[in-house]
Known about the structure:
single chain; alpha/beta; Glutaredoxin; 6 domains; 6-stranded mixed beta sheet; 5-stranded mixed beta sheet; elongated
Amino acid sequence: MPTKTEAFLYTIVLLLFIIHLLSPYLTDIYFAYQSHSYGSEAIAIPAAYTHIFSQNPDKRSDVVRNFLDDQMKNFPAIIEEKQVVKVLSEESFSLFVANNRYVMVVFHASWSPLCRKLAPEYAEAARELKGEVVLAKVYADKEKGLEKKYGIKGYPTCYFFVGGVNAHPCNFVRKRDAIVKWAKSHMGLGVYTIMTTEQFEEVFTSNSTIVLSFLDSLQGPETEELLAASMLHPDVIFYQTASANLARRFHNNSEIKLPALIMQQKESQHLSYFNGPFTESEIAYFISVNKIPPMNTLTMVKFPEIFKRCTKQEMSPPAIDEKAVVVLSAKNFAHVVAKNRYVMVAFYAPWCYWSRQLDPEYEKAAMELKAELVLAKVDAAQETFLANKYAIDGYPTISFFVGGVKVYNYYHERKSDDIVRWARKKMDLGIYTIKTTEQAEQLLMAEYTIVLAFLESLQGLESKDLAAVSNLHGDVIFYQTTSADVAKIFHIDPDIKRPAIVLLEREAQKLNHFNGTFTKNAIADFVFVNKLPPVTTFTNENALQILKSPVKQLWLFALTHDFEVRSIFQEVAEAFKGKLLFVYMQMDCQSASRQIAQDFGSTGHASAGPIIVSYSGNSNGKKYVLYDELSIGNIKSFAENFMENKLPSLSNSVSKTFLTPPYSDRFL
Length: 668
C-alpha cells in the first residue's frame, strides 16, 4: 500500500497528465501553477522549461514529460533526506545551533541542480554522523534573513557551527565520505578560532560552558597549553582569538594583558576570570572549579531528574565496600595519606547525583588497584575542615596524594577503567612536582624517605636525570620544585646555585645535602648511602641491596647483647653518615646471614666474638679485617684509612682477603 506522500505524488502526476490533455485550453492556468510544494521540498519548473513550453506549443508534452522524469528521480532522496536532516527556519535557527555542540548547516536553494545533487550524499552523511554531529539545512531562497546574515552568495554553501558559533566554512568534495571525514576532523580540533564581532557575540549566547582565550598569537605555546587543557574537559568548548579589537571590546576599549582567559558557566551564565600561570595544569584546575554551577542554579526546573532521585531515603551516605574504599575523616586523614605512598581521595557529597554515579565505578577501580595504592573517600559535606583545607568547590573532586602530598587532581572520565589507567600512569612518573609551601609542609609529615631537588626548570636535563635515578630507588619518593619558598622550608639557600638536592631520611628525620656532581651515578650513590639509617641491620630482605651496592661498607659482626661495641659502632657511623655504609650483622640470627658472616672471615658462630670488616663493595670484593681493640678511636681511624685507600699498607692491624662470589646468590 503506497504511503500518503507517494499517493500525493501520484495525484500530481495524474493532474499534470490531465493538464497536458487540456493544454490548448488551460495554458494560462498551467503557467500560473509553476511550482507545487510538498513537505519542505519544492517541485519548481525552471525557467528553461517554461521558455520552451511557451515558445514551442507543439512540444508541450515533451517538456512536461522531461520535467516529470527529472523530478521523479529525486523523490526517493528527498523522502530519505527528510528523515535525518533537520530543516531550520529563521525562527528556530539560533536556538538549535546554540543547543547542539556541533551542527553542520547547508544553505540550499530548491532550484539549484548542485543542491539537488548534494541532497542524497548529505542525507547519507547525516545518517552516519548521527549522535556526533547534527546535519541541518536552510532553504535560503525562502529564509532571506539567514541568507543575508551569513552572506550567502551561492548554493549550496555550508558552515560548521560549534556551540552556536559559526566556526568554519565547510570546504569538502560533495560526497558522503568526504563530508563525514571533514566533520570528524573538525570535531576533534579542541580549540576553535574566532575572528569577527559576529562570532564573538555568538560565543556568549551559547548554551554550553565556554572558555575564551585572548592571545598574542594563535600558533604559540599558549595555544598548546590551551589545547592540552581542552582534552581534559570535553564538556567545555574552547575558543581563542588574536584579535586586538575583540580583546578591547571585551575589556571596555582598554588594553588587556595577554594571554588572558575567561570562562562562562552554562547554567548561571557567570563569567570567571583566570589569573594564574598560563599552563595546562593551572587552566585545567581553574576550569574544573568554575564549570560547576552554583547551588542556587540547580533548580527543579533545570535538573528535575537529579532532585527526583534525591529522596529523603537516599540522602544517607552511599553504601561503601570499606575493604576496597577507605573512609576518611579529619581524625584519620593525615595518618592514612602520610603512611601510604599513593592515595587517591574522592571528596563527595551524599546528596550529589554525580557523586552517586561515581560510587560503583570508584569501588571497581579500588578493587583492581588494591595491591598498588589506596583509594579513599571523604564526605566533604560533613568534613568541612578537610573540604576547606583542600579547596573543594564541587562534587565529586578526586585528588591524588604521593607521600602525603596532594600533587594532582583527576579531571578525566569517571569510569573504573579510566581511573585505573590514569592512576597507574601517575604512579610510573617517578618524580613529582611541588609548588606551594602547603605541599612542602605536608611533605615533612610523610612517613617515607624523600628526595627534593631545587631546580631552575621542571623540564630540563636535571629533571630527566632525577627521574632516571628514581627508578633505582623504589623505596624513596622523588620531588622537584623551582620555588624558593619551598626550598627554604627544606633548609636550602634560595640563592644557591641550582640544581641542589636534599634527602630527608624517614627514621632519623635528618636532612642530608648533596654536594657532589649532578650526575645520575653520583645522585644514585648519595641516595643509597643516605636513605638508610646510620647503621643498617642486615636482613634477608635488604641483602641484595647491600651486597650489590658499589658504596664502600663497614661491617660489624656481633651478638645482640654486645651493647657496648654496638654503641661505639653507632657513634662512629653518625660521624661518617653519607660517606660509608655501616652494616650490623646479628651473629645470633639463625638464617642464611650466618653464611655471609663466614664469607667475611668470621666463623659464623655466636662464640666468635665481635669483629669489624671493611668491604670495598661489589666492584672488586676486597675486604680488610680490623684486629686492634674495637674502640671509638681505632674504628674511626680504620674507617678514615679505608676511605683514603690506605689500608693495604697497614698490615700489622688489618688482614686482606677477597670475598668470593657468588656470595649474594643465596638471596636471589
